[in-house]
Predict the 3D structure of the following.
Amino acid sequence: MTRIADLLAAGPTYSFEFFPPKTDAAQLSLGRVIAELEPLAPSFVSVTYGAGGSTRQRTRDVVTWVRQETAITPMAHLTCQGHTRAEIAEILADYQASGIDNILALGGDPPADPAQARPSDYAYASDLIDDVDAANHFSIGVAAHPEMHPRSPDRDTDRAHLAAKLRRADFAITQFFFETEHYLRLVDELLVRGIDKPVLPGIMPVTNTGPILRMAAMNGTAVPDWLRERLEGIEDQAEIRRIGVDVATAMCAELLEAGAPGLHFYTLNRSTATREIYANLGLATTR
Ligand code: FAD
Protein backbone atom coordinates (compact mmCIF):
# COMPACT_ATOMS: atom_id res chain seq x y z
CA MET A 1 0.00 0.00 0.00
CA THR A 2 1.59 3.29 -1.07
CA ARG A 3 -0.22 6.53 -0.43
CA ILE A 4 1.06 9.64 -2.19
CA ALA A 5 0.43 11.62 1.02
CA ASP A 6 3.07 9.42 2.70
CA LEU A 7 5.50 9.77 -0.21
CA LEU A 8 5.19 13.57 -0.06
CA ALA A 9 5.71 13.55 3.70
CA ALA A 10 8.99 11.69 3.14
CA GLY A 11 10.45 14.17 0.62
CA PRO A 12 10.06 15.53 -2.91
CA THR A 13 8.15 13.39 -5.39
CA TYR A 14 8.81 13.12 -9.13
CA SER A 15 5.86 11.84 -11.11
CA PHE A 16 4.74 11.27 -14.69
CA GLU A 17 1.30 11.57 -16.26
CA PHE A 18 -0.03 9.37 -19.09
CA PHE A 19 -3.29 9.14 -20.97
CA PRO A 20 -4.93 5.77 -21.71
CA PRO A 21 -4.13 4.62 -25.26
CA LYS A 22 -6.94 4.12 -27.78
CA THR A 23 -5.43 1.40 -29.97
CA ASP A 24 -3.46 -1.81 -29.45
CA ALA A 25 -0.44 -0.20 -31.13
CA ALA A 26 -0.63 2.84 -28.84
CA GLN A 27 -0.92 0.49 -25.88
CA LEU A 28 2.28 -1.31 -26.87
CA SER A 29 3.99 2.03 -27.31
CA LEU A 30 2.88 3.19 -23.83
CA GLY A 31 4.24 -0.06 -22.37
CA ARG A 32 7.61 0.77 -23.98
CA VAL A 33 7.51 4.38 -22.70
CA ILE A 34 6.77 3.23 -19.15
CA ALA A 35 9.63 0.72 -19.38
CA GLU A 36 11.95 3.55 -20.54
CA LEU A 37 10.86 5.76 -17.65
CA GLU A 38 10.86 3.10 -14.91
CA PRO A 39 14.68 3.32 -14.41
CA LEU A 40 14.14 6.97 -13.35
CA ALA A 41 12.33 5.53 -10.31
CA PRO A 42 9.30 7.86 -10.45
CA SER A 43 7.56 8.34 -7.11
CA PHE A 44 4.26 7.66 -8.86
CA VAL A 45 2.60 7.79 -12.26
CA SER A 46 -0.90 9.02 -12.97
CA VAL A 47 -3.38 8.07 -15.68
CA THR A 48 -5.97 10.51 -17.02
CA TYR A 49 -9.72 9.87 -17.25
CA GLY A 50 -11.91 10.82 -20.21
CA ALA A 51 -14.61 13.37 -19.39
CA GLY A 52 -17.99 11.77 -18.68
CA GLY A 53 -16.41 8.33 -18.25
CA SER A 54 -15.32 7.96 -21.89
CA THR A 55 -12.12 6.10 -20.85
CA ARG A 56 -13.49 4.44 -17.72
CA GLN A 57 -12.31 0.93 -18.68
CA ARG A 58 -9.11 2.03 -20.42
CA THR A 59 -7.98 4.19 -17.48
CA ARG A 60 -8.65 1.29 -15.13
CA ASP A 61 -6.72 -1.11 -17.39
CA VAL A 62 -3.59 1.09 -17.44
CA VAL A 63 -3.72 1.89 -13.71
CA THR A 64 -4.12 -1.76 -12.70
CA TRP A 65 -1.46 -2.84 -15.25
CA VAL A 66 1.04 -0.42 -13.65
CA ARG A 67 0.07 -1.73 -10.19
CA GLN A 68 0.51 -5.38 -11.18
CA GLU A 69 3.34 -5.32 -13.70
CA THR A 70 5.71 -2.58 -12.49
CA ALA A 71 7.22 -1.41 -9.21
CA ILE A 72 5.69 2.07 -9.67
CA THR A 73 2.85 3.48 -7.54
CA PRO A 74 -0.12 4.44 -9.73
CA MET A 75 -2.75 7.16 -9.27
CA ALA A 76 -6.07 7.11 -11.13
CA HIS A 77 -7.58 10.41 -12.29
CA LEU A 78 -11.37 10.45 -11.88
CA THR A 79 -13.75 13.13 -13.16
CA CYS A 80 -17.24 13.26 -11.69
CA GLN A 81 -19.35 15.34 -14.11
CA GLY A 82 -21.53 12.94 -16.12
CA HIS A 83 -21.47 10.23 -13.44
CA THR A 84 -24.09 9.09 -10.95
CA ARG A 85 -23.21 8.37 -7.33
CA ALA A 86 -23.79 4.66 -7.95
CA GLU A 87 -21.27 4.66 -10.82
CA ILE A 88 -18.64 6.47 -8.74
CA ALA A 89 -19.22 4.05 -5.83
CA GLU A 90 -18.66 1.13 -8.21
CA ILE A 91 -15.45 2.65 -9.64
CA LEU A 92 -14.04 3.42 -6.18
CA ALA A 93 -14.86 -0.05 -4.82
CA ASP A 94 -13.17 -1.61 -7.83
CA TYR A 95 -10.01 0.49 -7.38
CA GLN A 96 -9.88 -0.29 -3.68
CA ALA A 97 -10.21 -4.03 -4.38
CA SER A 98 -7.46 -3.76 -7.02
CA GLY A 99 -4.99 -2.22 -4.56
CA ILE A 100 -5.14 1.31 -6.00
CA ASP A 101 -4.56 3.77 -3.17
CA ASN A 102 -4.49 7.18 -4.89
CA ILE A 103 -7.18 9.18 -6.68
CA LEU A 104 -6.93 12.58 -8.36
CA ALA A 105 -10.46 13.90 -7.73
CA LEU A 106 -11.58 16.15 -10.59
CA GLY A 107 -14.71 17.98 -11.61
CA GLY A 108 -14.19 17.46 -15.34
CA ASP A 109 -15.87 19.30 -18.18
CA PRO A 110 -19.40 19.09 -19.55
CA PRO A 111 -19.64 17.95 -23.20
CA ALA A 112 -19.43 20.75 -25.79
CA ASP A 113 -22.90 19.71 -27.02
CA PRO A 114 -25.35 19.88 -24.06
CA ALA A 115 -27.52 17.26 -25.82
CA GLN A 116 -24.72 14.76 -25.16
CA ALA A 117 -24.74 15.38 -21.39
CA ARG A 118 -25.13 12.22 -19.28
CA PRO A 119 -27.12 12.15 -16.02
CA SER A 120 -24.86 13.59 -13.33
CA ASP A 121 -25.04 13.70 -9.55
CA TYR A 122 -21.97 15.94 -9.44
CA ALA A 123 -20.95 19.43 -10.51
CA TYR A 124 -17.51 20.06 -8.97
CA ALA A 125 -14.46 18.18 -7.77
CA SER A 126 -15.45 19.02 -4.20
CA ASP A 127 -18.59 16.84 -4.60
CA LEU A 128 -16.40 13.91 -5.60
CA ILE A 129 -14.00 14.47 -2.67
CA ASP A 130 -16.95 13.74 -0.35
CA ASP A 131 -17.31 10.25 -1.82
CA VAL A 132 -13.61 9.45 -2.15
CA ASP A 133 -13.07 10.58 1.42
CA ALA A 134 -16.02 8.50 2.65
CA ALA A 135 -14.37 5.38 1.21
CA ASN A 136 -11.71 5.94 3.91
CA HIS A 137 -9.01 4.32 1.82
CA PHE A 138 -7.53 6.70 -0.74
CA SER A 139 -4.91 9.41 -0.65
CA ILE A 140 -6.66 12.27 -2.47
CA GLY A 141 -5.17 14.77 -4.91
CA VAL A 142 -6.92 17.69 -6.60
CA ALA A 143 -6.24 19.96 -9.57
CA ALA A 144 -4.99 23.53 -9.10
CA HIS A 145 -4.89 26.24 -11.75
CA PRO A 146 -2.09 28.78 -11.14
CA GLU A 147 -3.53 31.20 -13.73
CA MET A 148 -7.11 30.50 -12.55
CA HIS A 149 -9.53 27.94 -13.91
CA PRO A 150 -11.05 29.30 -17.14
CA ARG A 151 -14.56 29.09 -15.61
CA SER A 152 -13.60 31.03 -12.45
CA PRO A 153 -15.09 34.53 -12.40
CA ASP A 154 -12.08 35.97 -10.56
CA ARG A 155 -8.89 34.95 -8.76
CA ASP A 156 -10.30 35.26 -5.28
CA THR A 157 -13.22 32.92 -6.01
CA ASP A 158 -10.86 30.48 -7.71
CA ARG A 159 -8.56 30.40 -4.66
CA ALA A 160 -11.48 30.08 -2.23
CA HIS A 161 -12.76 26.95 -4.01
CA LEU A 162 -9.24 25.51 -4.29
CA ALA A 163 -8.56 26.15 -0.60
CA ALA A 164 -11.84 24.40 0.28
CA LYS A 165 -10.76 21.36 -1.79
CA LEU A 166 -7.30 21.29 -0.23
CA ARG A 167 -8.66 21.43 3.31
CA ARG A 168 -9.91 17.90 2.66
CA ALA A 169 -7.44 16.57 0.08
CA ASP A 170 -3.80 15.60 0.68
CA PHE A 171 -2.13 17.49 -2.17
CA ALA A 172 -2.70 19.32 -5.45
CA ILE A 173 -1.16 19.09 -8.90
CA THR A 174 -1.19 22.20 -11.05
CA GLN A 175 -2.14 22.88 -14.60
CA PHE A 176 0.99 23.60 -16.67
CA PHE A 177 2.43 27.12 -16.82
CA PHE A 178 5.52 28.73 -18.33
CA GLU A 179 6.58 31.24 -15.66
CA THR A 180 7.64 30.20 -12.15
CA GLU A 181 5.93 33.30 -10.69
CA HIS A 182 2.46 31.84 -11.43
CA TYR A 183 3.22 28.86 -9.20
CA LEU A 184 4.82 30.91 -6.42
CA ARG A 185 1.87 33.30 -6.35
CA LEU A 186 -0.59 30.40 -6.12
CA VAL A 187 1.29 28.89 -3.16
CA ASP A 188 1.39 32.29 -1.42
CA GLU A 189 -2.34 32.83 -1.99
CA LEU A 190 -3.06 29.43 -0.42
CA LEU A 191 -0.79 30.16 2.54
CA VAL A 192 -2.73 33.36 3.19
CA ARG A 193 -5.82 31.14 3.43
CA GLY A 194 -4.07 28.85 5.91
CA ILE A 195 -3.35 26.06 3.40
CA ASP A 196 0.15 24.58 3.32
CA LYS A 197 -0.59 21.20 1.74
CA PRO A 198 1.89 20.16 -0.99
CA VAL A 199 1.18 21.65 -4.43
CA LEU A 200 3.06 19.79 -7.16
CA PRO A 201 3.88 21.95 -10.18
CA GLY A 202 2.74 20.38 -13.48
CA ILE A 203 5.51 20.58 -16.10
CA MET A 204 4.74 20.52 -19.82
CA PRO A 205 7.93 20.65 -21.90
CA VAL A 206 7.13 22.25 -25.27
CA THR A 207 7.89 19.42 -27.68
CA ASN A 208 5.78 20.78 -30.54
CA THR A 209 4.30 24.20 -31.10
CA GLY A 210 0.77 23.69 -32.51
CA PRO A 211 -0.92 21.23 -30.12
CA ILE A 212 0.74 22.44 -26.90
CA LEU A 213 0.04 26.11 -27.62
CA ARG A 214 -3.59 25.21 -28.44
CA MET A 215 -3.84 23.33 -25.12
CA ALA A 216 -2.38 26.37 -23.35
CA ALA A 217 -5.06 28.60 -24.89
CA MET A 218 -7.82 26.20 -23.78
CA ASN A 219 -6.47 25.98 -20.21
CA GLY A 220 -5.90 29.71 -19.80
CA THR A 221 -2.10 29.18 -19.67
CA ALA A 222 -0.29 32.33 -20.86
CA VAL A 223 2.53 31.79 -23.36
CA PRO A 224 5.03 34.56 -22.59
CA ASP A 225 6.45 36.67 -25.43
CA TRP A 226 10.01 35.50 -24.75
CA LEU A 227 8.92 31.87 -25.30
CA ARG A 228 6.97 32.68 -28.49
CA GLU A 229 10.01 34.58 -29.78
CA ARG A 230 12.36 31.67 -29.05
CA LEU A 231 10.08 29.28 -30.93
CA GLU A 232 9.13 31.64 -33.78
CA GLY A 233 9.90 30.39 -37.28
CA ILE A 234 11.50 27.14 -36.09
CA GLU A 235 10.26 24.18 -38.11
CA ASP A 236 12.78 21.54 -37.07
CA GLN A 237 11.05 19.30 -34.48
CA ALA A 238 14.33 18.34 -32.81
CA GLU A 239 15.23 22.00 -32.34
CA ILE A 240 11.77 22.80 -30.91
CA ARG A 241 12.17 19.94 -28.46
CA ARG A 242 15.68 21.12 -27.52
CA ILE A 243 14.32 24.60 -26.69
CA GLY A 244 11.34 23.11 -24.83
CA VAL A 245 13.64 20.91 -22.73
CA ASP A 246 16.00 23.84 -21.97
CA VAL A 247 13.11 26.09 -20.89
CA ALA A 248 11.49 23.36 -18.77
CA THR A 249 14.82 22.44 -17.16
CA ALA A 250 15.42 26.04 -16.10
CA MET A 251 11.89 26.35 -14.68
CA CYS A 252 12.15 23.01 -12.80
CA ALA A 253 15.45 24.12 -11.23
CA GLU A 254 13.83 27.39 -10.11
CA LEU A 255 10.80 25.57 -8.71
CA LEU A 256 12.88 23.10 -6.71
CA GLU A 257 15.12 25.92 -5.47
CA ALA A 258 12.00 27.79 -4.35
CA GLY A 259 10.88 24.77 -2.31
CA ALA A 260 8.36 23.00 -4.59
CA PRO A 261 7.54 19.59 -3.08
CA GLY A 262 8.40 17.79 -6.34
CA LEU A 263 7.65 17.88 -10.06
CA HIS A 264 4.82 16.30 -12.06
CA PHE A 265 5.60 15.82 -15.77
CA TYR A 266 2.93 15.81 -18.47
CA THR A 267 4.63 13.21 -20.70
CA LEU A 268 2.06 13.04 -23.52
CA ASN A 269 2.96 9.31 -23.49
CA ARG A 270 6.54 9.98 -24.59
CA SER A 271 9.72 9.55 -22.59
CA THR A 272 12.48 11.56 -24.29
CA ALA A 273 11.83 15.10 -23.00
CA THR A 274 11.27 13.88 -19.42
CA ARG A 275 14.45 11.79 -19.51
CA GLU A 276 16.46 14.74 -20.83
CA ILE A 277 15.12 17.11 -18.15
CA TYR A 278 15.90 14.51 -15.47
CA ALA A 279 19.45 14.20 -16.77
CA ASN A 280 19.88 18.02 -16.94
CA LEU A 281 18.68 18.37 -13.34
CA GLY A 282 20.95 15.56 -12.17
CA LEU A 283 17.91 13.70 -10.85
CA ALA A 284 18.70 10.49 -12.72
CA THR A 285 21.93 10.04 -10.81
CA THR A 286 20.87 11.20 -7.37
CA ARG A 287 17.72 9.11 -6.95
P1 FAD B 1 -13.28 22.09 -9.99
O1 FAD B 1 -12.73 22.10 -8.63
O2 FAD B 1 -14.42 21.18 -10.29
O3 FAD B 1 -13.67 23.60 -10.37
C1 FAD B 1 -14.12 23.96 -11.66
C2 FAD B 1 -14.60 25.41 -11.62
O4 FAD B 1 -15.72 25.50 -10.74
C3 FAD B 1 -13.58 26.41 -11.07
O5 FAD B 1 -13.77 27.62 -11.73
C4 FAD B 1 -13.92 26.50 -9.61
O6 FAD B 1 -13.51 27.74 -9.02
C5 FAD B 1 -15.43 26.39 -9.66
N1 FAD B 1 -16.01 25.80 -8.45
C6 FAD B 1 -15.50 24.78 -7.72
N2 FAD B 1 -16.30 24.48 -6.69
C7 FAD B 1 -17.37 25.31 -6.79
C8 FAD B 1 -18.56 25.49 -6.04
N3 FAD B 1 -18.81 24.73 -4.95
N4 FAD B 1 -19.43 26.44 -6.43
C9 FAD B 1 -19.20 27.22 -7.52
N5 FAD B 1 -18.07 27.09 -8.28
C10 FAD B 1 -17.19 26.14 -7.92
N6 FAD B 1 -9.75 16.57 -17.10
C11 FAD B 1 -10.20 15.36 -17.53
O7 FAD B 1 -11.25 15.28 -18.17
N7 FAD B 1 -9.52 14.20 -17.23
C12 FAD B 1 -8.36 14.21 -16.51
O8 FAD B 1 -7.77 13.16 -16.25
C13 FAD B 1 -7.85 15.47 -16.06
N8 FAD B 1 -6.73 15.54 -15.33
C14 FAD B 1 -6.28 16.76 -14.88
C15 FAD B 1 -5.12 16.80 -14.11
C16 FAD B 1 -4.63 18.01 -13.63
C17 FAD B 1 -3.37 18.03 -12.80
C18 FAD B 1 -5.33 19.22 -13.94
C19 FAD B 1 -4.80 20.54 -13.45
C20 FAD B 1 -6.49 19.19 -14.70
C21 FAD B 1 -6.99 17.96 -15.18
N9 FAD B 1 -8.17 17.86 -15.93
C22 FAD B 1 -8.60 16.64 -16.38
C23 FAD B 1 -8.94 19.07 -16.25
C24 FAD B 1 -10.13 19.30 -15.30
O9 FAD B 1 -11.07 18.27 -15.43
C25 FAD B 1 -10.76 20.65 -15.68
O10 FAD B 1 -9.96 21.68 -15.16
C26 FAD B 1 -12.22 20.83 -15.34
O11 FAD B 1 -12.70 21.96 -16.10
C27 FAD B 1 -12.51 21.21 -13.86
O12 FAD B 1 -12.15 20.27 -12.97
P2 FAD B 1 -11.28 20.68 -11.68
O13 FAD B 1 -11.25 19.50 -10.81
O14 FAD B 1 -10.03 21.26 -12.22
O15 FAD B 1 -12.08 21.90 -11.04
